[in-house]
Write a structure and sequence with these properties.
4 copies of one chain form a homotetramer. With about 270 residues, chain A is an alpha+beta fold. The first copy, chain A, contains 9 helices and 7 strands. Chain A is about 40% helix and about 10% strand. Chains in contact: A-B, A-C, B-D, C-D.
C-alpha cells in the first residue's frame, strides 16, 4: 500500500539531507519525488539548501511546476527540471538535480561518463549531454522556463542521467531509494573515472555487464545495505543516532574491554 | 537604513569564520568591509587566523590603512591590499584576500581562471594576474607597502578578482554577501577547472552566459540560500546550532520514527 | 593459546569498523577471519555495511560458504570470495574485500600496483589482476558462484592482494592485524602511486627492498603502533574514547595551562 | 631564560599531536626537540603514533640515540634520524620525520620540490634527495643504523629539508615553532606544486624571493598567527577548547542574535 503524504514528505526531505551529507549536493540542487497517490503532482522543498530541508519545507506542485498551495517563502527557480521529467517519464518516481564535484568535470570537458566499476552500473547504458546553447543560445544556464525543462527531459530520453553542459546533472529513479543509490554511486563512479583517466586508460563495463550489474545493485539486498549505511551516517551527523549515550556507560565499556578475555560477548549492547 | 558599526563588526568577523569554515582561508588571509557609514574607513581584524576572528578583534582603518585607534596586538601586514582597493573602487564594500588551495595552482602556473559552470560566473568577465616582480623585482611577496597595494588595485581594475602570482587571490564585492558568495564559488569553480583540464578539455561559459549567470546568482534568492547554508554549517561547527538539544528528546525521536507510519508529520519540531 | 569465539567475533567486527573508518570500505565490502579453533570455518557478518558491523552480526560459515546456523537477515552475496581463499590458502587467517577509491583506478586502468614507499611494501612482490570476463564472459561482476570465487583464489595464488578488474580488491593476511595493516597501507600506497604518476615518474621499491621492508613493517612494533592509532581513532569516532570527560575538568585544564610555567607536568592525566 | 624540561616535554608532545592533526603525520613519523639545557641530549617519545603522544611518553636520548633512562615500552626504530642531525647541526633545535601524502610523490618521482608560493618559502633554497640505495644497497628503508642516520644528515647538509627516496621527508628547525611552521607549510606547498604541475607549468619563487619570503614568514607575527590557529584547532579536536559551553548560554546567544540590531557588541563574551 502506498505511503501517506506525510511519510513522503519525511522521506524526500531526508533524501535531500542524506545526499547532501554524502557530498553530492551543496547549497544548490534538489531532490523531489512524485506524489505517492496523485501522479499529477510532485513534492519539492521551498528554496533551501538540501542539507537543511525538513518535512515542513516540502510543498506540492503540479507537473507544470505550479505550487498547489502558494506560500510566502521563495521557491526553487529550477522546478521545471523535475516537473517536465515527471511528465515525460510516467514511471519515474524521484528526481535529483545536482552539481557534484566529481560530475561537473564531465559537464565541462564533454568527456563521456561511463560505468567503470560494478557499483557505477546504475548510471545506465549511456549518459547523454544537454547543452542549453543548442536550443536557447546564451542564457543564465538556469533551467527555469518550461520549454527549457522540456528540452532537458527530451535529452534525458529513456536514460537515467543527463549531464548538463557547464551546469551539473539530473538523475531519475523508479523509486526514491533507487534515485538515491544511483545519484551517489554515479558520483563515486565519476571520481574513479577521472583518476583512472589520469593513469592513462579507462576500461569500462560492457553493455551486458552494465545491465547485469545494474539489475543486481538495485535488488533489495544491496539497496537496503547502502540505505542503512547512508541513513545511519546522517543520523550520526544530526545527532539522532544513539543520542542518549550515558557517560556512565562509557567507563564501564572501557573496563569491560579489559575483562573481555573472560566474558562472553555483550550481546547487542553495542 | 545602514547597519550599525557593531552589526558590521559582527558580520565581518563572521564572514571571516564562514569563509575559513568552507576551506578557502586557513591561518592566513583576511576579509574586510568598508565602514557602514564612513566610506573613508574600513573594518579589519587585528592579526589573527580568520577562523578565530571575533567582533571584538575588528578595528577601524583609514583608506591609507592606518589604524584609527592604535592597539597593542599586532596588525595584519597586508592591510594595504584592502585599503588601496577601497580607494580605487568606491562601489566596493567588501574585500577578501586568500590563498585557497584550488586557486593557487592558477597563480603558480599562469593558467587563466575561467567560469566553467553557472555558479562560477560571478568571477566575472576576466580574471587578471598581478606579479609583484613586474614593478618591484624580488620582494617578500607580502603586499605591505602602499605602492604595492596600489599596483595590485590597478591590476584588479574593474574586475572582481585578481590572481597574485606565487601568492594567492584578492576578491572584491559590492556587498559582504556578494563577496562571500564570489569568494567561495570562485574557489569551487577553480577546483572544477583543474579536474576538467585533467580530462583534456575545458569548455567555459561564453561572455554573455557569464554575465547572465552572474546576475542571476547574485539575486536575493540564490544568495540567501547559500548564505543560510554556510551560516548554519558554521553554527554547527561552533556549537551554536541547536546547542540545547536535550538527550531525552533523542530517544523519543527514535521511537517516533517507529511510529511514523501511523502519525502525521511532526510539524516543525525538527 | 587461541582466542575464544566471542573474542574473534569482537575482533573481526571491530576490524570491519576500523577499516571503514580509515576510508577503505564504504557501504560495500567485508572483512572476515578464519575460525580461531576450526580451520574449516570462517567468521563473517550478515549483510551490513562494514562501518556498522557489531559482534552479534558475525556468523559462522563453512569453507563452502554455507552458513552454519541459518538466520533470517540477508547474507553477503560475495561470501565465496572469502571461503575459496580460506580453502586455497590454509595459512591465511583473514581476508578483506573492498572497493577503496585509491585502488579502483588501478582496477579500471590496468596500471600495475607497485610498492612505492616503505609502508606499501606489504602489498608484496607482485599484485595480480583477475578479470571475470576471462572465464565467465559478461556477468553481474559480483563474485557469487563458487567457481567464480575459486577462479579469483587461483588468480591470487601465493600473493597477498588481487585486483579485480572493474570491481575492487581482495587482500589476505596471516593474522587479522596483518590483514588490517596491509589493507590500509596498500590503499595509501596506491594513492601515492597515482600522484607520483602525475608528476611523471614512478620509481618503485626493488624486489629486495620490498621483502625487507615488508618483513620490518609486520614486526610487532610497527603493527602495534598502527593498530593503536587506528583503534583510538575508531574509539574517538564511536565515542568510547575518554567518553567520560567531565566538563569541570576542561576549565581547570585551561587554567592549568596558564600556570604551566610554574608547575610540573601533570603526570598522565591527559 | 630557557624553558624547563617539563615544559619542553609538554611542547614537543603537543607538536606531535598538532602536526598529526594537520594531516602531515599519521601512524608513523615523529617530532623531537633538543634538550632545553643540555645540547648533548634530545627529547623523543617512546614508540607511539604522533597523534597520541603525551608529555609522559617523552624520553631523553643522547645524541648517539641511546635512551638515558631505559624503559619497558618500545622505542622508535628511526631515532638516529634525529640524533645524527642534532650532532651535525648544533643550531638545530627541532626535527620532524614524516611521510606526508603531498610530499611522498616527490620522493617517489624524483621531482624537485620548489617553493611555489610565499608560505612555502621556508623550505629553503634547495631541497636535496637522499637515497638509501646509494650507500647501503637494498635495505628495509628504515633509517635505523647510526651510519644510515649520519648519511642522511650529510645529505641534509645546511638545508632545512631532505627528501628520502621511497620513504618520506626529514625537516629541521632553529626552534620548535619554526619546525612546525616549516613542516606544515612545506606539505601545503608540495600539494600546490603537484596541482600546478597538472595545469602544465610550475613557476617557482626566485632564490631572492625565497630568502626574503622565508625570513618574513618566520618573524614572530606570522609564526604566532599560525601557531594560534593550529593550537586552537588541536584543542577543539581534543575537546579542551571552550569545553565547558553551557547549554543554557546557547539559546540566550540565539535570542541575543535577534536583538543584535538594538544592542551594542557583547564585548568579548565570544
Amino acid at each position: 500500500m502506498p505511503i501517506s503524504l506525510d511519510q513522503a514528505r519525511e522521506q524526500v526531505a531526508r533524501a535531500n539531507r542524506m545526499i547532501a551529507n554524502e557530498g553530492v549536493l551543496d547549497a544548490f540542487g534538489h531532490v523531489t519525488m512524485r506524489h505517492p497517490t496523485d501522479p499529477g503532482r510532485y513534492l519539492m522543498s521551498r528554496s533551501r539548501a538540501p542539507e537543511l530541508v525538513q518535512p515542513e519545507d516540502i510543498q506540492e506542485f503540479t507537473l507544470d511546476s505550479v505550487i498547489v498551495k502558494p506560500i510566502e517563502p521563495r521557491l526553487y527557480g529550477e522546478r521545471v527540471i523535475h516537473g517536465e521529467i515527471y511528465k515525460a517519464r510516467p514511471e519515474v518516481m524521484a528526481v535529483c538535480h545536482h552539481h557534484a564535484p566529481s560530475i561537473l568535470p564531465f559537464c565541462i570537458s564533454g568527456m563521456e561518463l561511463k560505468p567503470v566499476y560494478h557499483l557505477g552500473a546504475t548510471l545506465g547504458a549511456s549518459v547523454p549531454f544537454w547543452d542549453s546553447r543548442d536550443e536557447f543560445g546564451d542564457t543564465t544556464l538556469i533551467v527555469a522556463k518550461p520549454e527549457e525543462g522540456a528540452s532537458l527531459a527530451r535529452a534525458l530520453g529513456q536514460n537515467w542521467i543527463v549531464l548538463m553542459r557547464r551546469h551539473g546533472a539530473t538523475v531519475a529513479g523508479l523509486t526514491l531509494d533507487e534515485l538515491i543509490f544511483r545519484t551517489i554511486y554515479t558520483a563515486r563512479n565519476a571520481a574513479l573515472q577521472i583518476q583512472a583517466h589520469g593513469l592513462g586508460h579507462v576500461s569500462p563495463l560492457t553493455a551486458a555487464e552494465t545491465e547485469l550489474a545494474s539489475e543486481y545493485n538495485l535488488r533489495p539486498g544491496p539497496v537496503a545495505r547502502a540505505s542503512e549505511y547512508w541513513s545511519v551516517r546522517l543520523d550520526k551527523v544530526e545527532g539522532t543516532w544513539r543520542a542518549a549515550k550515558p557517560k556512565a556507560a562509557a567507563p564501564k565499556k572501557k573496563a569491560a574491554k579489559a575483562k573481555k578475555a573472560k566474558k562472553k560477548t555483550r550481546g547487542g549492547r553495542r
